[in-house]
Fold this protein.
Amino acid sequence: MLGGPRPPQPHSLTMFAYLIRRILITIPLALGVVLVVTVSFDLIPGDPAALILGEFATPQAIAELRTSLGLDRSLPVRYVTYVGDILRGDLGVSIRDRRPVTDILAETFPYTIQLALVAILLVLAVGIPLGLLAASRPGSWIDNLIRVTSLAGLSMPVFWTGIVFMVIFSVNLRWFPVSGTGTWRHLVLPAVTLALPSIAVVARMTRSTVLEVLREDFVRTARAKGVAERSLLYKHTLRNALIPVVTVMGLQLGQMLGGAVLTETVFAWPGVGRLTVFAIFNRDFVLMQGLVLVLAMVYVFVNLLVDLSYGVIDPRVRYQ
Amino acid sequence: MSVAAPAVPSAASARRDVWRRFRRNRLGMVGAVIVLLLIVMAVFAPQLAPSDPADQNLRARRTPPNAEFLLGADEFGRDILSRIIYGTRASLTVALASVALGLTLGSFLGALAGYLGGWVDGLVMRTMDLFLAFPYLLLAIIIVSALGPGILNTIVAIAVWTIPAFARVARSAVLQLKERDFVTAAISLGAKEARIMGVHLLPNFAATLVVYASLYLAYAILMESALSFLGLGVQPPTASWAGMIASGRNYVTSAPHIATIPGIAIAIAVLGFNLLGDGLRDALDPRSAKS
Amino acid sequence: MKTRMWTVLLCVAVLAAGAAFAQKTLTIVRPSDPVALDPHLETTAPGSWVYTQILEPLITVNQDMEIVGRLATSWEFVDPSRLRFTLRQGVTFHDGTPFNADAVKYTWDRAISSDPPGRWRSLASAVVGAEVVDEFTVDIVASQPFGPLELVAAMPYTAIVSPTAVEAVGSDAFTRAPVGTGPFKFVEWRANDRIVLEANDDYWRGRPALDQVIFRTVPEEGARMLSLRTGEADMVLLPTPSDLPALEADPNFIVEGAPGVGIFYLAFNLDRPNVADVRVRQAVAHAIDRELIVEAILEGGGVLAKSVIGEPVFGFKDMELLERYPYDPERARALLVEAGYTQGSDGFMRDAAGNVLTLQALPSNGRSLKDREIAETLQEFLRQAGIAVELDIFEWATTFQLMRGETLDYDLNSFTWFTTTADADYTMYSNYVSTEVPPASWNRWRYANPQVDEWLKAARASLDPAERAELYGLVQDQLAIDLPAIPLYGSFEVAVLSADVTGFVAHPIQYLLDLFPVDKR
């Protein structure tokens, strides 16, 4: 996780044991994350019951609602009850919607996953090739062009590019719908907006790691071994170069799955990012607890996938 | 340099080499120039801006760029050019202060973790993991609500977000120091050698920090704009670029200049810091980047 | 022979498909998804826009602010605390069960007496429930003589639900799939995306012209307007006011609006020393150019407020604010000087100790049209008059919490109050009676005037409209002098539609959206 990509280490544990260890580590993480949410909702002003009942409610009505929602229990009680519930698979009932949190999440996540997957595919399909192209001709005009445009791509605020795309492609060209969901067309603009900064980051990352690796191994060994070996070496060095790129893509995917708030807001995409905003603004901490828990799991899962993929990319890697 | 000079180059000549390499990097120089211009705009805003950024002229609202309003007027009839210039203050202050704060706290935590190792290291790193797994927006709102709205809480909110990255850099630098038998060297080779190694290693660590800092300055501007867009940033009448985009976005069809121009300003500022950071990284580590 | 058969079948298929596609669907875009589709859990407009198509009350207020019967054919007070309704016969719920007095009693009991009660219970104020007289006669009963009883019964929240349906799926599930007597039936709700309704063929007024209504959730104002232009949406609620003039001039679109029952105020906190002096409040009134605010910021999205209640509200009287407090920054400064302040060299007014007169403001943010923008403009206007204003712009949850606190550490705040029952009592009692202070009630300005208290209490108890109107007039005159709040603009309920849509008439009460007469070419 935080230590960055671990360099390939000689063998010790089997993959299974490694997985188990990783999963076990997530439990304190999960508990910690939920604790922070529970505590923080006590810290910030705003009463979900008052918000629900609106401007006209009497304090009595609010107090009654708070009791019936269990909001008047103390912090430790709420936390422990909640943890107990999670262990039974119950993420609670949304304060505002009075629906099981699991239902709400089950409705919302598919939209986020859709958007994130399409965006990450774009990153894969556009970012890596661009990086490779730039690395293959270092110092050339195309290299400079790619470097500058990718820097520009990650310098523009996402909500701004989203609005600009909307105006150009939806309003003026009428190629895509303005917002919402429904057809594949609805997915295009949000996915491109979301993917743009990641494409830039991945392109730059790919370029720099490939250059680094090429310089080291390639130059030395190619001279010694001759042309026939070159393609083999090229493939090998690429695998190594891809490790940091995969790490970065994992980070990007993790962010997309949890944090595409700005894109979702601009394009009215009913995903998890917007749901987080609603949960916070409505002080619906039950929903927030469930969301945060699932997002933490997603984050861990993505990290795990990334680490496992090192093994696929470079079979010399063993799990420590 | 005389023949008897030590194998390790002196700090001063290393700095000269870095500067020379940086100067040759055209894009890096462009970044430096942009950043310099931004600083000038921020410092000399009252002299540069044609009018008071808070002056409203409701009857002139949404005027497109013309002779009187060089970049047009916003929905209150305020001069956009003046607001862009003054907005540099908010963006730069937030970016610099938050990165400085994050760098200090993060490096301290990371160095502590690396140096002490053991459970302290575990605790600090797990806390960082917690931070990363936690939705940043919620964190920002907690901070905004606890501290009250305004520039201070935005700085804290963004600083907190930058801490994990600086912590990681500091921690790995300290770990490298430990690994390099620094202690053994200090004992066996005598203090002078140890000092030389410190002089050689710490600048490296400082170099990485500088690169990260400049890149995070770029991120910080984007973060500040995201928070402002969601209404969690600086308060009126302080001009803020993202605030201008946020309020201008409803007029994209009737008065697109209100939202477009600040977006360009943000993009240029972020680009500047990114180019600067790239340039610094290339200059400090000649192995990376192009020939 | 075979080819002919296939050709015929193909034609039929195409025609059938064509007929299906010729279904008249009205797509409406608005910013937020409701909490629920049942007044039991949902008291805000996004909910009522949808459920008023599905559920109907006994009586309702029409666009001309007259009370008309819906599920009731006639009604009268049998005594000052009891209103008797004669119900319409032959009406069935969407699930086929009959509408009768038992359904009415069930609805009111569920809202008022169940645990937890409906979220609108406190709006019912003195009403305690419903009593069945016979199959098609029912009484709504209050605990005391209650003049506004008729208008309470006309609130959209009192819409009648199918008892069978509630019992069958449970109250909570019902709120997400309601069954009523209305012109449209519930079909589907995809959270945060869309709600789909279809026409009720057996509706008692006749089948509506539209086949289907789709409510789509689009939070971005710009995106909503763009959807209208691209044809993705037929109707936009809460449009961008600055777009309205161009849209009105465009033959492809219709702008349909009506002055509403909401008033957006700049409110003072009379407990705070800085604004306790009425001259300071009057100075603030002179410092603000309200007409310019309405013209330049609201741009047709609101009207100049003439009183603390909206013009369509029963009891309204013009407070003549423009005459009493015209825009005059010089007069403002003069009043401040009278109140003991002196002008500093930087233009700001200072008190005896040399401190700049600074007002702390807690504006509403994103709740009312242009509230944030108005706050910024007010700050600037007051600066021109020498008063410094510090704005604390929070998100609504925090703002609301602060506003409802027992003490309010702000000199100014802003808010919209909608007189949903269209009766002055609803707003004025809870806002101006001295005992009605937060957190129990809404006298946020902590205004205390015993004479006003007397007038308002008398107006509430009286059943004589003329007497009530006169009393409310006296109150408004007094408020114009005491100025605990400055009304800034009145709401203007406006929607923009494609020119293909006919029959829509805007309703002054922002909760109501009448789609029954709407048709689409």
In short: The longest helix of chain B spans residues 191-229. Residues 1-6 of chain B have pLDDT under 50 and may be disordered. The radius of gyration of chain B is 23 Å.
